[in-house]
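Example record

The entry below shows one chain as it appears in the dataset: sequence first, then structure tokens.
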Amino acid sequence: QVQLVESGGGAVQPGGSLRLSCAASGFTFRWYAMSWHRQAPGKERELVARITSTGGSTNYADSVKGRFTISRDNAKNTVYLQMNSLKPEDTAVYYCKADGVASYWGRGTQVTVSS
């Protein structure tokens, strides 16, 4: 059974940091590109960051460049999103996604940035 389980979300003040994790199981993780997406209330889901299957290439939404870093550990079947200098507009539910011969989504983790 395929599972993507996000963790690490929470409430943080502006300027703070969080590290999200997404643990994968039920498929061959190292064959899949991984990405983080987010959806704020009343808005469409958007791509935040993506990493290739080997970790050799990454790309980011303009809104998070220089503040967020995506990484992966294929030995642990886990993808991470380090989020620094958080802003209120980063508040959203964050989802991880796996893309390969099929696509899979996690259930999301809430991130709230507020003073």
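Notes for this example: The chain has a mean pLDDT of 98. The longest strand covers residues 18-25.
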